[in-house]
Write a structure and sequence with these properties.
Shape: globular
Strand content: 25-35%
Radius of gyration: 20 Å
Structural class: alpha+beta
Distance between the termini: 44 Å
Oligomer: single chain
Number of helices: 7
């Protein structure tokens, strides 16, 4: 009887993960309601992308149905440990080159296949620190990569916050930490369709891009979605853009803003281990005529974490505001 009980428990755990907002859409093309998953990569995908994943071979992507296949405890644990599409994409799509965009749900098989192979097989968009440059056995690629990604998510040692140096094609890049950006909601966004818009948010930091899901027909969308960006030692402002998703034409811009992350990072570095302090304000980004802040934005230690609530008035557009939160995660390696 215990053998019969385990699949039921496993399916429940899978469905609990599937109800997370970032898992409501295919990790590769954004199609709604994905019912397949790559057990070893840790993403939920649609039927069309599932076909491409299968063609990669199980040494790269082991595809299972969320509802039809039996999952082992190890497969479920690995999927849950990654955390779903948003966390996985923060790794696998950390460096989308200029001019490269994700396929849409209606993309051709050729475009879909090219993107998925570049993403998982060739590792072209992967965080450079996680790239596997050579393997002696065909089956060792994804297992080695999966181990490095698991180590990346599981890292919990509390050593120094020295920059980690990695090799990019154009030279050496040093990362000093990670930003978790929670996009909460938009208010009174601009109309770009007949009566409404289908908004989504894109964040850009250096060569990295992160994107929320599309909210259909809503000028006051609620995302509550977490995005991740690695912060290089030589960092600039985060560029935030809001777009209206269009099926048959280019997506329309719905405003933009720049987020100055210097106050957050400077404050966090000055205080070091935030877990040693109680809740308190440690910094501030001041509203001025040359930024998009609606009000002064304070940097605070909250329950041992450095966080900053930000409310922005979108620029170069007739209307629209955006509420989000930044959280600084230092390198702990």
């Amino acid at each position: 009887m215990s053998q019969l009980g385990r699949p039921t428990s496993g399916k429940r755990r899978l469905k609990d993960l599937l109800v997370q907002r970032d898992n409501h859409f295919c990790a590769d093309c954004g199609a709604p309601d994905p019912k397949w998953a790559s057990a070893n990569i840790g993403v939920f995908i649609c039927l069309k992308c599932c076909g491409v994943h299968r063609s990669l071979g199980t040494h790269i992507s082991k595809v299972l149905s969320v509802t039809l296949d039996e999952w082992s405890d190890d497969e479920i644990d690995a999927l849950i440990e990654v955390g779903g599409n948003a966390c996985a994409n923060s790794i696998y799509e950390a460096y989308l080159p200029e001019g490269v965009s994700k396929p849409r749900p209606d993309a051709s098989h050729e475009d879909r296949s090219k993107f998925i192979r570049s993403k998982y097989e060739l590792q072209e968009f992967l965080k450079p620190s996680l790239r596997i440059t050579s393997t002696s056995k065909k089956g060792s690629l994804q297992s080695s990569l999966s181990k490095k990604i698991m180590d990346n998510f599981q890292s919990s040692s509390s050593s120094s916050q020295q920059p980690v140096t990695i090799q990019l094609q154009e030279g050496m890049v040093e990362f000093i930490g990670v930003l978790k950006i929670t996009i909460f909601k938009g208010t009174n966004l601009a109309v770009r369709d007949m009566l409404s818009s289908d908004p989504y948010v894109v964040l850009t930091l250096g060569k990295q891009k992160a994107q929320t899901a599309v909210v259909k027909s809503n000028l006051n969308p609620v995302w509550n979605e977490e995005l991740m960006l690695s912060v290089p030692q030589d960092f600039g402002a985060i560029k935030l853009q809001v777009f209206d998703h269009d099926t048959f034409s280019a997506d329309d811009i719905m405003g933009e803003a720049h987020i100055d992350i210097q106050p957050l990072i400077t404050s966090a570095m000055a205080f070091g281990d935030a877990g040693m302090f109680g809740n308190m304000q440690i910094g501030k980004w001041l509203k001025s005529h040359d930024n998009a802040l609606i009000d002064d934005s304070t940097v605070n230690i909250v329950d041992g974490k450095v966080k900053q609530a930000v409310s922005l008035k979108l620029q170069n557009v007739e209307s629209g505001e955006l509420d989000l939160e930044l959280e600084w995660i230092p390198l702990e390696q």
